[in-house]
Every structure is written in structure tokens, then in C-alpha cells.
Amino acid sequence: MENDPIIARREQEAREAKTKKLRNLMIGLAVVAVALVGVVVYQNIHYRPIVKDLELEKADLTAQMIELQQEYDGLTTTNASLNAQLDTSRAEVAALIERIQKTEATNRAQMRKYEKELGTLRTIMRHYVTQIDSLNTLNHKLTAEAAAARKDASEARKANEQLAQQVDELSGQVAAGSVIKARGLHTEAYGKNDKKTDRSSRTVRLLTTLSLVENDLAPRGPVRVYIRVKDPEGILLTNSASVSFPLGDDEIVASASREVDYEGKEVELSIYLNDIPKYTKGVYTIQAYTAQTLLGETTLMLR
Questions:
Q1: Which of 116, 173, 259, 269 is in the most buried spot, having the most CB atoms within 10 Å?
Q2: How many Cα atoms sit within 13 Å of 219 on the Cβ side?
Q3: What confidence tier does 1 reach under pLDDT thresholds 50, 70, 90?
Q4: Max CA pair span of the chain
Q5: Cβ partners under 8 Å of residue 186, min gap 6
Q6: pLDDT for 232
């Protein structure tokens, strides 16, 4: 039984079949391994250029985004609202650059999305450029108009100043022209017999005559003329009838005065100085005034 040839043959055949099956399995596994190696090699050979191209596209997209970021940084305006919008867009560009750098180049769908966002941000930037150009144009126009307005205002101010100066000058001329003037100022001495004399011992009064000349600009109405008579020693001669009158900021004492009605035409008048106790030898000085001005001055020599 132990050496039954049939059983031995069957066992041998079983062993051979098992060996053959293992051999076939090994061959199959070897074939699969070779196939996998081939696939890997194929993929490396076929996809490596594609990956490289995708990396280049990512680098190019990143470079475009950085260039756009620099262009955004170069946009400036004094408009607060537009500046706020620019800041928001700058933040979007910076965030997009960061997302691109973190995304694999082989994620083509995401990269296409980033390309669309880049296009949108470029369109927005062109809109900003148009707005800034419009604002700059408007600012230049307003600046030019403001400069022109300042120039016009300056010229108008100068014209007004010149006009005011002319008015002042004309007013001064009118004021000066309206002052009453006199001519023919003359003083003589008289004795007790009402005869002229040149002797101090015989003199009892002085008579000063003058004419207020014609002046259409002068105000009409009563005008008082004052005379101041100083003796040879410069002492003002006064009596109980002497009065004072304002002249500028001063109050002046007059030796005598007289009021006449002035209507713009020439008026002759005489003013007496009486009640002076004594006259001495020498030169007397006589000045005639109105309340506005000195009319003139003359002298009288008494022996």
C-alpha cells in the first residue's frame, strides 16, 4: 500500500500542478510589475513636460499678479472715497497672490479661476485709472479757474484801491478847492482924526482890508474872518472884544474878527482893531484866517 504506484503518481501530479500554478502566478505577478513599471515610466515621460508647463503658467500668473499689485500701488488720488476703494482692491490682489502661491500648479481648475479674477481686477483698475484721470482733469480745471479767480480778484482789488485812491485824491482836491482864499490883504494905521498915519504915537486903531475871492466850490453862507496882530516884539494885540476860534486841533486867539455873507462871489471886507492902549515903533505883523485856513499875512511899519 505504501508503494502503490498509482497513489505516488497522483501525489507527484499534484505537486507538479501546484508548482505549475505557483510558477504561473509568479509569471503573472512579474507581468503586472513590468506593466506597472511601464506605466510609471510612461507617466514620467508623458506628464513631466505637462507639469513643467503648468509650473511655468503658475509662475507667469504670479508675475502678472505682482505686476498688477505694483500698478495698484502706483495709483494715487486725494479723493477719500476712491482711496478707500483702492485699498480694498489692493487687499484683494495681495490675497489672490497668496492663494496662487499656495495652490499646486497641477490644479488647473483653480488656476483658471485665478486667471479670471486677475482679469476682473485689471478691469477694475482701468476703471480706477479713468476715474483718477477725470478727477485730475477736474482738479486742474478747478485749479486754473481758482487761479484765474484769484487773479481777477487781485486785479479788481487793485482797481478798487486805485479807484479809492483817485476818489481820495479827488476828494482832497475838492476839499482843497472848496477852501476860501483871499487877496489884497492890507493894513493901515489911523489917528484920532480918522486920517492915515505911520506914527506909532498918533495911532489909535488899525484897519485891515482884504477880498475873499470867487470860488464856485466853496460852501455858501456866513463866513467869519479873523485877524491876529502882533507888535514888534511878537506879542499878540488883544482887547475886550477879542475872540478865539478853532484851527485844526488848536484853539487860536484872534485880535479882531468880522462875519460876512459869502455866496461864491468875491467879497471885500474891512476889520478894525480898536482899544489898544499904546502902539510902539517897529514892524507889526498881521495874519488873516478863516476857521479852515490861513488867508494871508502882511506887515505894517510904524515910526
A1: 269
A2: 8
A3: very low
A4: 213
A5: 208, 209, 210, 298
A6: 95
